[in-house]
Every structure is written in structure tokens, then in C-alpha cells.
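C-alpha cells incoming
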């Protein structure tokens, strides 16, 4: 009897905690992208995980005690530095857009590195975090996986670029599936197939010969010169989540480590307030 009592007391004292230390790092200074990510950090923290987030759009909610946000609003300044007035498809080729995007991204990571809070994170030892979550579009941030020797999940606020999914083992036929940056959706007609193939080949060369070698050089300078080539680090991504609305998606084949999700940024629906509608006499209505 006593044994049972002791065991019961011991089992009550022993409570298992499954909370993980999570580092989430986003960079894109645009609330419409960050809206997709914010509910994820919030929910993880509410479920008891210790979440540290580097973000240009913090929630600043004092009730979320397990969520530490590092405010990187400063990233918005980069919009002012680069001229975005002609950041439009009608005025620029998609390659120019990709290149501008790359410059903006590198500049933001540079600015982030200069801040003391980020330096503090980068001083943390290997294995300090149990999981890294990043914004999928940043080739540089994948290097955090090497820095902290932790599994990495990337989250995309919109469908993924073909090059990135190709690195994750998900190559798609350019005549069948459009790249998100082309702005084309659904079944492609003959001319669209040609345009898409041209874009995907061009984008492949741009990424392979320029964007990724550049990202590799920069990621090494932040996360260690001993890092494997950045494309190999990207290939090591454990999981990629892509925010895709199933109604507008053209249902592409995906490998098992790329998963689509949607609607996390929807706010809970509140019932409409009851409003008293005055019944207008038909005579008055007819006058209008
Ligand atoms: C914080 O995490 C603990 C467990 O680590 C959990 O019990 C608590 O409810 C969490 N608090 C909030 C506000 O999410
Ligand atoms: C990152 O910031 C630290 C502190 O200011 C600096 O010593 C280091 O050189 C920076 N790294 C790069 C690659 O700029
Ligand atoms: C991939 O991840 C595994 C396990 O975390 C690690 O041992 C390996 O070195 C990583 N490889 C690259 C190229 O990052």
C-alpha cells in the first residue's frame, strides 16, 4: 500500500514538459506577409513553447508571456532606400524584380545583424534551439540551420518559387505549372507555356549562377565559414509550409516535405450586432 502511495506521489511530482525552444526569423517588411506568420508564433507560444521571434511586425501583446519578440521595424526603412515606384511587372522584367528583391533582402539581414538583440541570439551555442522557423523566401536564413544545428522549417506566405521547391526535390514541368512570380495561374495556353518555360529557365540560371552563390557567401559570413554550400543546406530543410488558398490553387503535385496550409490569418468571426431596421412604408420607398 505504502509503495503505491509513494509511486502515486512521485508520479504527481513528475510532470513532463514538452515545450521546445523555437527561434522564428522573418524579414520581409510587409504586413500582408507577416499576417500569415504571426498566428503561428502566437499559437506555438500559447501551447507552452518558448518562442523567440525576429520580426518587422511584432504583435506586442503582453499577455503572450512565452513569446519574446525582437522588433525589426527598421527593415521598413529599406523600402525608402530602394526605389519601389517601378517595382511592377509592367515596368520591369521578373529578373529585375528578383534582383531588386535580393538586394533588399541582403540589406535587411545586414541591418538586423547590426542590432544588439540579434548579436545576442547569434552568440547562443549550438543546439540551443530545438527548432528554427524561417521565412522561406530568404536563401540566407537557411544558414541558421547550420549555425544552431537544429531542424529547420520554412514558411512561405504565398506559393513557392519553382527554384526553391526544386531544391526540396519538387521539380515541376514548366509547361504544366506556372511559377508564382509570372502571375499566371491554372491551365496555361500555348503562349503562356512558352513564357513560363522561358521564365523558369532564366530564373534557374539567375538563381544557380548568381543569387545562391551570393547568398552562400553572405550566409557564411554570418553563420560560419565551415557551412556546407547553401543549396545543400536548403535541401536539408525538414519541412516547408506554403500558404496557398485551395480555391485559387492549381493543385500541383508536391513531395511530402512541402505542405500547404491556409486561412491561419483569418480572425474569428463574431456574430453581427442586432440592428433595428425601420420598416419604411411602401409609399416612401416608391418615391425613390
Ligand atoms: C507559457 O508556457 C507554459 C508552459 O511552458 C504554459 O503552462 C503557459 O500556459 C504558457 N503561457 C501562456 C500565456 O501562453
Ligand atoms: C555582424 O555584426 C557584428 C557586430 O556589429 C560584426 O562584428 C560582424 O562583422 C557583422 N557581420 C557581418 C557579416 O557583417
Ligand atoms: C543536414 O542535417 C543533418 C541533421 O541535422 C546534419 O547532420 C547534416 O550535417 C546536415 N547537412 C547539411 C548539408 O546541412
Amino acid at each position: 500500500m505504502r509503495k503505491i502511495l509513494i509511486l502515486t506521489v512521485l508520479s504527481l511530482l513528475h510532470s513532463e514538459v514538452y515545450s521546445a525552444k523555437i527561434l522564428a526569423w522573418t524579414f520581409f517588411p510587409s504586413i500582408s506577409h507577416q499576417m500569415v506568420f504571426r498566428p503561428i508564433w502566437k499559437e506555438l507560444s500559447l501551447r507552452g513553447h518558448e518562442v523567440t521571434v525576429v520580426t518587422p511586425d511584432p504583435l506586442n501583446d503582453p499577455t503572450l508571456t512565452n513569446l519574446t519578440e525582437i522588433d525589426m521595424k527598421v527593415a521598413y526603412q529599406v523600402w525608402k532606400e530602394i526605389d519601389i515606384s517601378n517595382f511592377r511587372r509592367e515596368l520591369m522584367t521578373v529578373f529585375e524584380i528578383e534582383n531588386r528583391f535580393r538586394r533588399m533582402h541582403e540589406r535587411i539581414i545586414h541591418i538586423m545583424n547590426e542590432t544588439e538583440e540579434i548579436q545576442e541570439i547569434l552568440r547562443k551555442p549550438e543546439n540551443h534551439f530545438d527548432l528554427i522557423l524561417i521565412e522561406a523566401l530568404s536563401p540566407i536564413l537557411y544558414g541558421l540551420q547550420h549555425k544552431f544545428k537544429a531542424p529547420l522549417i520554412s514558411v512561405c506566405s504565398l506559393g513557392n518559387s519553382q527554384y526553391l521547391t526544386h531544391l526540396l526535390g519538387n521539380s515541376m514541368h514548366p509547361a504544366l505549372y506556372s511559377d508564382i512570380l509570372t502571375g499566371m495561374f491554372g491551365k496555361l495556353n500555348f503562349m503562356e507555356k512558352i513564357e513560363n518555360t522561358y521564365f523558369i529557365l532564366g530564373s534557374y540560371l539567375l538563381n544557380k549562377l548568381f543569387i545562391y552563390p551570393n547568398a552562400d557567401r553572405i550566409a557564411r559570413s554570418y553563420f560560419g565559414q565551415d557551412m556546407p554550400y547553401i543549396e545543400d543546406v536548403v535541401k536539408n530543410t525538414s519541412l516547408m509550409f506554403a500558404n496557398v488558398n485551395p480555391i485559387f490553387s492549381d493543385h500541383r503535385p508536391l513531395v511530402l516535405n512541402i505542405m500547404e496550409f491556409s486561412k491561419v490569418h483569418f480572425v474569428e468571426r463574431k456574430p453581427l450586432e442586432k440592428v433595428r431596421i425601420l420598416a419604411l412604408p411602401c409609399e416612401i420607398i416608391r418615391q425613390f
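note: The pocket of 2-acetamido-2-deoxy-beta-D-glucopyranose (ligand 2) is lined by residues 113-114, 119, 221-222 (CB under 6 Å).
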